[in-house]
Structures are given as structure tokens and as C-alpha cells.
Amino acid sequence: KTRKITLPEFNLKDTYNFVGWSLSENGQIQAKFIAGNENIKIYAQTELQNRDITYTVKTQKADGSYTENTEIKSQKIGTNHTVAYANQDNTVYQNPVYSVANLIVSADETQNKVTITINRKTYTVTYLVDGHASIIPSKTFRHGEKHGEFDESKFEADDLGIVKLELDNSQKTKEEIKNLLVTKNHIIKVYVGEPTRLVGKYPQTKVDSPAGIQFERDDVRELKFNS
Fold it and tell me: Which of 94, 97, 103, 159 lies 20 to 30 Å from 120, alpha-carbon distance?
């Protein structure tokens, strides 16, 4: 009646952990049990093990390629896991896209995989052409993508070129537009006309024999350039 009860050995399934012993199926865990004056049942309390859930996070770069890294979550087998990943910078990136939104945690960790894709925000650059009948189609850029060169082939076919550029009503050079990192929608106005000749073309003076040529004078004159 007063003897300490020796608890039996046992083997658990691979997916369970032993928690302790109790006097009911969901009772409080006890360290020891003493025999009384009636029959008793002692229950081995167990719980399902945790398994890893692997997040593969793909983050888009300005050039359209992706960097990848992994993050590990952990949750009990058989429970429902709701995928959650915070947008690291909502001024640059769109909301994350999940390959699955929910999954039941499997004992096989190869089944607990989620791909999270984080794309950059996109913007539209609209082009307005003045001085030529052709158009430049609007283009979509990723956040931070470099604008790059213009295609002037349609203008050059008519011996014309870009003579002025305005970015959102502010005059810019070709180089400034080329190196523009797009972070919002823009309107670029392209003025087309005859390109300004900055350097005149003159025939080279030909001298077959310099014999007899004499120095006359130094002469400094002002040259006017139309830029």
C-alpha cells in the first residue's frame, strides 16, 4: 500500500517525445507514484515532435536577377503552419508571394518547404516626342533600374537627332537620362530636330614646299560657338 511504484520501460514512435507520467490521460505530470488501497492507472504523457520548415527567400535585384537565402521555422508535426514573411522594405519591394500559404507540418522535412518571392516595384516611363512623327513606346522599369540609352535610329534615318530632353518638365542631358535610376513614374519629353554643328568642317591647307614661307604676325581672334 505504501510502496513506490516502479514505472515500466517503453519505446516511443519516432515522431513523439516523452513528457512524463500522470494519473489521467491529460493530467498533471508527477515525479513519483505511491500504491494506495485501490487499483490505479498511470499514463505516459507524450507530445508530437517539432519539424523544421524551410523558407527559400528569393529577392529580386534591379537587373531582374535574384538573390537567395534560407530561413528555418519550427513547428509541431500535424499542426497547420501559416506562412508569414514581412516585406523588408515596402518602398522598394512588392508584397511577398508564397508558393503555398498554408501547410500541414509533415514528419518528413523535405515536404515542409516554402518558396517566397519578393519582386521589386515597377514603374512606367512615358515618352513624348516633339518634332517627329514616330513614337517611343512606354517602358516598364524595376525600382532602381538604370534607364540606359535611347534608340535614335528612327530620327537618324531622317538626318535628325535629339536636341533637348525634359524629365518631368526639367531639362536634362542625355547622360543624365542614361544614368537615371528609376524609382517612380516619369514623363520624358524628347525634342527632335537638326543636330547643332558644333565644329565646322574646313579644307586642310596644303603646303608642298615650305621654302620661302616667312613669319608675319601672331593674331588672336574671338570664336563664337553655338552650343
Answer: 103
Task: Check: CB of residue 44 under 8 Å from CB of residue 18.
Answer: yes
Helix (H) or strand (E) holding 187: strand 186-193
Provide the whole-model pTM.
0.73
Q: How far apart are CA 19 and CA 45, in angstroms?
A: 5
Which residue has cell 515536404?
A: 111
DSSP 8-class letter at 93:
B
Coil, strand or helix at 197: coil
| Residue whose C-alpha cell reads 565646322 in the numeric block | 200
Residue carrying C-alpha cell 513606346: 137
| CA–CA separation, 69 and 89 (whole Å) | 17
Question: pLDDT for 179-198, tens place per residue?
Answer: 999 999 999 999 999 876 65
C-alpha cell belonging to residue 92: 522598394
- The three cell numbers of residue 120 are 521589386
Phi, psi at residue 111, to the nearest 5°? Answer: -90, -10
102 Cβ contact partners less than 8 Å away, ≥ 6 residues apart: 80, 81, 82, 83
Q: What span, in angstroms and rounded, lies between the C-alpha atoms of 87 and 59?
A: 10
| Residue 180 vs residue 221, higher pLDDT | 180
CA 172 to chain centre: 29
**CA angle at residue 150 from 149 to 156, to 5 degrees?**
130
The answer to whether the beta carbons of residues 193 and 163 sit under 8 Å apart is yes
- Of all residues in the chain, what percent carry a pLDDT higher than 70? 93
Phi and psi dihedrals of 154, rounded to 5?
A: -65, -35
Strands, sheet with 66-76, edge to edge from the N-terminal-most edge strand: 66-76, 50-60, 113-118, 97-98
